[in-house]
Write a structure and sequence with these properties.
single chain, two-stranded parallel sheet, 48% helix
Length: 238
């Protein structure tokens, strides 16, 4: 897959954020790095379903994209390196690394992972403030799966994950939930060879990186499976 394909599939907003960070880093000095603390499961971003391939599953923190962007920047004299030090860890693993820190305990509930955090403004009850994590989009499901080992709860901050199964099964609200469930079903039947092929399809990677991402993907899917199994009445959908 050519780098141009990644540019076409990438969200322009993400590229804008990267360029802004690189510009600021350049002002501070050419040795100042740009850090992107994104978990490897989302960075790899294997499409949840066949209908979500291409621009519906962007990979703006994928190693191939970041390395290609760094090469282009180097050609024009910009040498600030771009680093993702969480590239080969799941979000659950990252959370568990810092869960006991006071900073995490005091501030995690104020962070936003949601892909559409202002959706609460359309809530007819008017009972919720925004922006807030919606609780049902793909990033929110990953967020919930990452917090399983932490003795804290976001029940008051996000909507219930499975409330849409019976009430809004055809709505856009539940589309991510069903797509994630579909990917869990697919994962259960994947052979090692098929998984490695899917990983290679996300971008050019060395054999070593494919092996690293294979572990990350398996752990990420296991995190989601564990989360759904612990949700009331959810196991029957797995």
């Amino acid at each position: 897959m050519a780098l141009a394909d990644f540019w076409m599939a990438s969200v322009r907003r993400s590229l804008l954020f990267l360029c802004a960070a690189i510009s600021i880093a350049g002002i501070m000095g050419e040795d100042t790095p740009v850090y992107i603390p994104e978990n490897g499961f989302i960075g790899l971003n294997i499409s949840l379903t066949n209908s979500r391939k291409g621009s519906c599953s962007t990979r703006t923190t994928h190693p191939f994209f970041l390395e290609g962007l760094s090469e282009i920047l180097g050609e024009v004299g910009i040498h600030n390196r771009i680093e993702n030090f969480f590239a080969y860890k799941t979000k659950r693993e990252i959370v568990n690394l810092i869960a006991e820190t006071q900073s995490f305990k005091n501030n995690y509930m104020n962070t936003i992972s949601c892909s559409h955090p202002c959706v609460a403004r359309y809530n007819r009850t008017g009972s919720r403030e925004y922006p807030v994590n919606c609780g049902f989009c793909y990033p929110c499901l990953i967020r919930k799966a990452s917090l399983q080992d932490v003795e804290i709860s976001e029940k008051n901050d996000v909507e219930d994950t499975i409330s849409f199964i019976n009430t809004e099964s055809e709505s856009t609200k539940s589309s991510d939930l069903f797509a994630v469930l579909s990917s869990v079903h697919r994962y259960k039947g994947l052979s090692d060879k098929e998984l490695r092929r899917m990983i290679r399809c996300t971008g050019k990677l060395s054999k070593e990186k494919v092996e690293w991402f294979e572990r990350v993907y398996r752990e990420g899917m296991n995190d989601l499976t564990d989360f759904f199994k612990n949700e009331p009445d959810m196991e029957k959908y797995l």
